[in-house]
Specification:
binds magnesium ion; binds adenosine monophosphate; about 30% strand; 7 helices; Molybdenum Cofactor Biosythetic Enzyme, Chain A; Molybdopterin biosynthesis moeA protein, domain 3
């Protein structure tokens, strides 16, 4: 057992985490697997797109010089999408064309079938057309060599669409971090396996942390909870460290006699970056490195574990994946009343957010105990009250980390 040597500031802890996580290797992944990942390199257009002048409508390709209302045209060929016409358009001639069809030689406009007497070998034009009408020009979407997608961009459906138009079958991305989640505690029972005996509780943290890791884009798996036994813990941790980029444990990281995580890690050659943060909840958080693996020892209290994941692990995962926006949205909030902070540490307070005239109004979700899992389902954001023992005055601006981004779309209350 060991006591905390020195507690560091929360912002300092985030900085140390980000400084000590590597970018993951770049891999080319099929388009369909690239969603949610960050581009590792700029992607440029390989050719003009669309690659040829084509029709925006169903109708007839004609020479605009001929396209006066009342004139009759002879249809000499057709140009559906994917099958260019064989013939050219001469004076008084037309080629039947459909959306996406290649504009035939000689034609410089398309008339919509709705503005003619209809489909046939011949038709009469009912409405005059000018040069370029209903044409989609080659290169009007992107030009060869254009920077289409910048390195660091998160790949979503529009980015996938753009890459596909340019024939890219795969994209260079930073791969997903492999995360292993391990709960520690002799009291823990796997949900769904049996009922609880006296003194036992169900393991909720490893499920919660797994969900958070996946939400952040990681490839995460959980392993069965380890008891507070030095050998069991050592084996489980070593196995996790061997197979993961990031290991996240919960519990056993404070100063109790059964808190063996930190000593186990140090024995396994993990180098401590920090242990102990001036933060509530989350004082005992441990962060260390071993070769390419990163280790987060989060506290066992469910709220602490999840809040600390948000504050430290999520930004680390994002950074490893090359995401420029490694942070959740931060907004400035205020409280209607003075808020005390008696903890001597920064308080990451669970709050609800309402859009009010003066900006975002925060209100505590109620009791802030670290074991109150139900409180997390009510929280929209974490308001950072502090540092240390300073509270905040009613109306004063406070930084808050938004957990439910959809909340930011909310309408004014009332
Ligand atoms: P510890 O950090 O190990 O001292 O645990 C602090 C509190 O969190 C204790 O009440 C534990 O029973 C509880 N706890 C630890 N691990 C978990 C877990 N995986 N799921 C739910 N609660 C836990
Ligand atoms: Mg424990």
């Amino acid at each position: 057992m060991q006591l905390f040597e020195k507690l560091i500031d929360h912002h300092e802890a985030v900085r140390l985490v980000l400084e000590n996580v590597p970018r993951l290797p770049v891999a080319r992944v099929p388009l369909m697997d690239a969603q949610g990942l960050a581009l590792a390199e700029d992607v440029r257009a390989r050719f003009d797109s669309p690659p040829f002048d084509n029709s925006a409508v169903d109708g007839y390709a004609v020479r605009s010089a001929d396209a006066e209302a009342g004139r009759t045209f002879k249809v000499v060929d057709e140009a559906p999408a994917g099958r260019p016409a064989q013939k050219k358009v001469g004076e008084g001639e037309a080629i039947k064309i459909f959306t996406g069809g290649v504009i035939p030689e000689g034609a410089d406009a398309v008339v919509m079938v709705e503005n003619t007497s209809g489909w046939g070998e011949e038709f009469e034009l009912r409405k005059a057309a000018g040069p370029g009408n209903n044409l989609r020009g080659a290169g009007e979407d992107v030009r060869e060599g254009d920077l289409m997608l910048r390195a660091g961009t998160e790949i979503g459906a529009p980015e996938i669409a753009l890459a596909a138009t340019q024939g890219y079958g795969d994209l260079p991305v930073y791969r997903r971090p492999r995360v292993v989640v391990l709960s520690t505690g002799t009291e823990l029972v796997e949900p769904g396996t049996r009922e609880l005996s006296p003194g036992e509780i169900f393991d909720s943290n490893s499920f919660a942390l797994l969900a958070q890791a996946r939400e952040a884009g990681a490839e995460a798996r959980r392993v069965a909870a380890a008891s507070d036994d030095a050998d069991v813990l050592r084996n489980a941790t070593e196995e996790a460290l061997e197979s993961a980029d990031v290991v996240v444990t919960s519990g056993g990281v404070s100063v109790g006699e059964k808190d063996l995580v930190k000593s186990t890690l140090l024995n396994l050659g993990v180098e401590q970056v920090f242990w102990g943060i001036k933060l509530k909840p989350g004082k005992p958080v441990f962060f260390g490195t071993r070769n390419d693996a990163r280790f987060f020892g989060l506290p066992g209290n469910p709220v602490s574990a999840m809040v600390c994941f948000e504050l430290f692990v999520r930004p680390a995962l994002m950074r490893m994946m090359g995401r420029e926006d490694s942070r959740r949205p931060h907004v400035e909030v205020y409280f209607d009343e003075d808020v005390e902070n008696k903890f001597g540490r920064m308080h990451a307070m669970r709050v609800t957010l309402t859009r009010a005239e003066g900006g975002w109004r925060a209100e505590s979700v109620g009791a802030q105990g670290s074991g109150l899992v139900s409180s997390l389902t009510k929280a929209d954001a974490l308001a950072l009250i502090g540092p240390e023992s300073e509270g905040v005055r009613a109306g004063a601006p406070v930084e808050a980390i938004v957990l439910r981004e959809e909340k930011l779309l909310g309408r004014p209350a009332g």
